[in-house]
UniProtKB/TrEMBL annotation:
One of its GO terms (cellular component) is plasma membrane. InterPro entries: AAA+_ATPase (IPR003593), ABC_AA/LPS_Transport (IPR051120), ABC_transporter-like_ATP-bd (IPR003439), ABC_transporter-like_CS (IPR017871), BCA_ABC_TP_C (IPR032823), P-loop_NTPase (IPR027417). It comes from Ideonella dechloratans. Residues 6-253 form the ABC transporter domain. One of its GO terms (biological process) is L-isoleucine import across plasma membrane. One of its GO terms (molecular function) is ATP binding. This is ABC transporter ATP-binding protein. Keywords: ATP-binding, Cell membrane, Membrane, Nucleotide-binding, Transport. Transmembrane segments: none annotated. Gene3D superfamilies: P-loop containing nucleotide triphosphate hydrolases (3.40.50.300).
Length: 256
């Protein structure tokens, strides 16, 4: 059995009178694509925001790479080894594609601010290495030729891929993708699926929130289904698809 990369036990979150997450637990192993699905308002984004430090959980324990991990501030989460993309693309619009990926890489850089100010030899060497790695990652996600273009000039699908390249630049233990297929056409979805598959084959571990159930079922090793903040099913895509509670949540009352 491959190593457990990420484990959540009993994650809970309230907003005033609303229990947005109620005792959610999951375990993701190395090299898995793990899907998190559920109807609108199911608590998927709340869960993502809790594990990536945007919201403080009210309860639950978290393990990352076999060590206890407390999701606090977003930058600490990146340093700990979780990289995330957002449902609404968050790129530096006026920076080039290459610069956007370099920013992600700086999370792992060593020379720090003083080296940057003094432009020490070690800073220059590291900067050159960061630039090279950023270009490699752009090539990897298939948009290498757009390195010098401003991020805002890229097509929607390419901006999504740029965001994934930037996440990869932090060398994460876990990549958390928030609705990566949202707004994509059928062709872009095929390309996205191939990219996620490639990332997994290269030994990376992915947590995927996605509305596109077909994409999730075709791509994920395991799936958790949330409904009204509660975990109603967990298992392989085949198991989850047959689950009565899941069928009801998607087709039943209250979710039209």
């Amino acid at each position: 059995m491959s190593q457990e990369v990420f484990k959540v036990q009993g994650a809970s979150k309230r907003f005033g009178g609303l229990q947005a997450l109620s005792d959610v637990s999951l375990s993701i192993h190395e090299g898995q694509v793990y899907g998190l699905i559920g109807p609108n308002g199911a608590g998927k984004t709340t869960f993502f925001n809790v594990i990536t430090g945007l919201y403080t959980p009210d309860g639950g324990s978290f393990m990352l790479g076999g060590e206890a991990y407390t999701p606090q501030a977003v930058h600490q989460v990146a340093k700990a080894g979780i990289a995330r993309t957002f449902q609404n693309i968050r790129l530096f619009a006026e920076m080039t594609a290459l610069e956007n990926v370099m920013v992600g890489r700086h999370v792992r850089s060593a020379s720090g601010l003083l080296g940057a100010v003094l432009r020490t030899p070690s800073f220059k060497a590291e900067e050159a290495a960061i630039r090279q790695r950023a270009q490699e990652l752009l090539d990897y996600v298939g948009i290498g030729k757009y390195a010098p273009y401003k991020a805002r000039t890229l097509s929607y699908g390419d901006q999504r891929r740029l965001e994934i390249a930037r996440a990869l630049a932090t060398d994460p233990k876990l990549i958390a993708l928030d609705e990566p297929a949202a707004g994509m056409n059928a062709t872009e979805k095929v390309v996205l699926r191939e990219l996620i598959d490639r990332i997994r084959k290269d030994g990376r571990t992915i947590l995927l929130i996605e509305h596109d159930v077909k994409l999730v079922m075709g791509l994920c090793d395991r799936v958790t289904v949330l409904d009204y903040g509660k975990q109603i099913a967990e298992g392989t895509p085949a198991e989850v698809q047959k689950n009565e509670k899941v069928i009801e949540a998607y087709l039943g009352a209250g979710h039209h």
